[in-house]
Design goal:
The protein has ten helices and five strands, in the order H-E-H-E-H-E-H-E-H-E-H-H-H-H-H. The protein is mostly helical and about 600 residues long. It has a domain of about 140 residues: Ribonuclease Inhibitor (Leucine-rich repeat, LRR (right-handed beta-alpha superhelix), Alpha-Beta Horseshoe). Strands 1-2-3-4-5 form a five-stranded parallel beta sheet. Helix 5 links the parallel strand 4 and strand 5. Helix 2 runs parallel beside helix 3, helix 7 packs parallel to helix 9 and helix 9 runs antiparallel to helix 10. It is rod-shaped and about 205 Å long. This is LRC45 protein. Keywords: Coiled coil, Cytoplasm, Cytoskeleton. InterPro entries: Centro_Cilium_Assembly (IPR052116), Leu-rich_rpt (IPR001611), LRR_dom_sf (IPR032675). Its main location: cytoplasm.
Length: about 600
């Protein structure tokens, strides 16, 4: 029945404890127990009290072979199993290779001196057994004391290993936490760097957009200035043409006056010759006077028509001035329409000038015809011509007075136009100053961003210093642990000097522990190298940041140079515009006066 039970438990994974005491197990049961110990991986405690397993040497040897292969069982109870020194030797051979058994109870057996020595020898290689009960086995007292010392040594070794393992676990956890913190800090640093790059890109885009807007505004102003210059040139050309025409007309009038003076002198000479014939021709002169009065009325009508035409021309010129003022007021919003209107006004002005010239030519022709007719009849009409001359001189004085009044009005209109142009220029200058102020504000914002980045770099350096201090603390802690381990090693050496039998094995154990410590030291050195690599990477990142900051400062300097250059160009353009306006203002009154004439 035990064989069937144990065969069933070979594949079981839930049973942790098995108690088979007092079941009279024999050789077959011992073999089944050895098979169970070889195959089962879950049983931690096995109780076999009162079964007399030591009587069956072959079965007990199979049991010991199973115990040798088992690495799970922690507690084994073999009390009252009639185990002799041979069975104890088998158990000792099994315990030399077993690494899991911690408690073994062999009380009330027949182990004797040989069995006790075998068990003592196996304890030199077995470092996991902590409790071994050998009461009631006829084992000498010195062997029992040596066994107790070996078990105490195993217990101390287990405690030291557990403490070292705990410390290694703590150190590994701290190292992992440091790695996590450094990774987090590095990721935060990378995120801050990315955010700073995005902010810099945004600021560069905003500055580029602002610069493009300013450039567009400057281009618009430059185009407006060019259009104004072209219009001023065209108006100056038209005024020059009108002045030339007026000069020609003045020359014609001077020539007519000279001819009139010559004719008057000739008539005066003829008057002296014809005084004698005056009495005979008085009747004829009366008739001629009536005809002359009629012609005088006709001339007055013609003069009135000329005055009306002059008024019409003055009205047309006034309309042209109003159109010019309207076009200058609408230049900012409707440049193209203003140009078209100017062209239309120029055409109208040219047409009006052509009409005036044609009318004046016609009137000159009429006047020349009339003067020829008057010259033909001048011999008989000296008195009537003198009266006509007086009336014409009075009318010319009136025309001059009207021209002077019109000239004063034209000068007032020019003063108004100049004041409007100055106001517009002041508004444009204020607008440009506002744009320059915005550019300075953007530059100040960029400088503030650079200062923030410097502060962040300083914070990162402070964090790096904190990490280095923390690493120094860890090194000190490792040194303390190393000192504790050295102290414990020295205590172990003193204890091993007392026990001559365990000297060689203890030395091997210490060498193994030293190799483990060397491994720990290598791990610590590897961690220190990783820390150094991370610190070097961090320093490289900081150097890259400083390079980027220097590049940004150079870009800011370039921007400031561009802004200063733009200011100088704006000042030059403003000076050019002011000079052009002053030239136009200085050259306009003469032209208007000549055109009014």
């Amino acid at each position: 029945g035990v064989r069937l039970l144990l065969n069933g438990l070979c594949s079981n994974t839930t049973v942790k404890s098995l108690d088979l005491k007092g079941n009279n197990l024999r050789s077959m049961g011992a073999e089944a127990l050895g098979k169970l110990l070889r195959q089962n991986k879950s049983i931690r405690s096995l109780t076999l009290e009162w079964n007399s397993l030591g009587m069956w040497e072959e079965g007990f040897s199979f049991f010991c072979q199973g115990l040798r292969a088992n690495n799970v069982l922690q507690r084994l109870d073999l009390r009252n199993n009639q185990i002799n020194h041979q069975g104890a030797g088998e158990l000792a051979m099994a315990l030399t290779q077993n690494t899991s058994l911690q408690e073994l109870d062999l009380r009330w057996n027949n182990i004797g001196l040989l069995g006790g020595r075998a068990l003592l020898n196996c304890l030199h290689s077995n470092k996991t057994l902590k409790k071994l009960e050998l009461a009631g086995n006829n084992v000498p007292g010195d062997i029992l004391k040596a066994v107790e010392q070996a078990l105490d040594h195993n217990q101390d070794r287990e405690v030291i290993l557990s403490e070292a393992q705990n410390k290694v676990n703590i150190l590994s956890k701290e190292v992992l936490s440091l790695k996590d913190e450094k990774k987090k800090q590095f990721m935060d640093f990378v995120d801050t760097v990315d955010k700073e790059k995005e902010e810099r890109a945004r600021s560069e885009k905003m500055s580029a957009a602002r610069v493009s807007q300013l450039q567009e505004a400057l281009d618009e102003q430059y185009s407006i200035m060019n259009s104004l210059k072209t219009k001023l040139q065209m108006t100056e050309a038209a005024l020059a043409l009108s002045e030339q025409k007026v000069r020609n007309l003045g020359e014609l009038l001077n020539a007519m006056k000279q001819e009139q003076n010559c004719v008057a002198e000739c008539h005066f000479r003829e008057l002296q010759q014809q005084k004698q014939e005056g009495a005979d021709r008085e009747g004829k002169l009366l008739h001629d006077l009536s005809a002359a009065s009629e012609k005088n009325l006709l001339l007055r009508n013609q003069v009135d028509e000329l005055e009306r035409k002059c008024k019409v021309q003055q009205d047309q010129l006034f309309q042209v001035k109003q159109d010019l003022t309207n076009t200058t007021a609408e230049l900012k919003l409707r440049a193209v329409e203003a140009e078209e209107r100017l062209e239309m006004e120029k055409r109208r002005f040219k047409q009006s000038l052509e009409d005036m010239e044609s009318l004046r030519i016609k009137e000159v022709g009429r006047m020349t015809q009339h003067m020829e007719a008057s010259e033909r009849s001048m011999h008989n009409r000296i008195q009537s011509l003198e009266a006509i001359r007086v009336s014409l001189e009075e009318e010319l004085s009136q025309v001059k007075a009207a021209a002077l009044t019109e000239r004063g009005q034209a000068e007032e209109e020019l003063i108004k136009v100049r004041s409007q142009a100055r106001l517009e220029e002041q508004q444009r200058l204020e607008h440009l100053e506002e744009k320059l102020r915005l550019m300075t504000e953007s530059r100040d914002e960029a400088q503030n961003c650079c200062l923030k980045q410097k502060e962040m770099v300083a914070e990162a350096q402070a964090k790096a210093k904190q990490l280095s201090l923390h690493a120094d603390g860890l090194r000190k802690r490792l040194d303390e642990l190393q000192q504790d381990l050295d102290r414990k090693e020295e205590e172990k050496v003193t204890e091993l000097n007392k026990v001559k039998v365990e000297l060689q094995e203890q030395i091997g154990h210490l060498e193994a522990e030293r190799t483990a410590q060397d491994g720990l030291r290598e791990k610590i050195a590897a961690l220190e190298r990783q820390l150094k690599a991370l610190s070097s990477n961090h320093r490289e990142a900081l150097l890259d940041k400083e390079g980027e900051i220097s590049l940004l400062l150079e870009k800011l300097r370039m921007k400031e140079a561009e802004i200063s250059r733009m200011r100088e160009e704006e000042a030059q353009r403003a000076s050019f515009l002011q000079n052009a306006i002053m030239a136009y203002v200085q050259g306009s009154p003469l032209g208007t006066h000549s055109s009014r004439k």
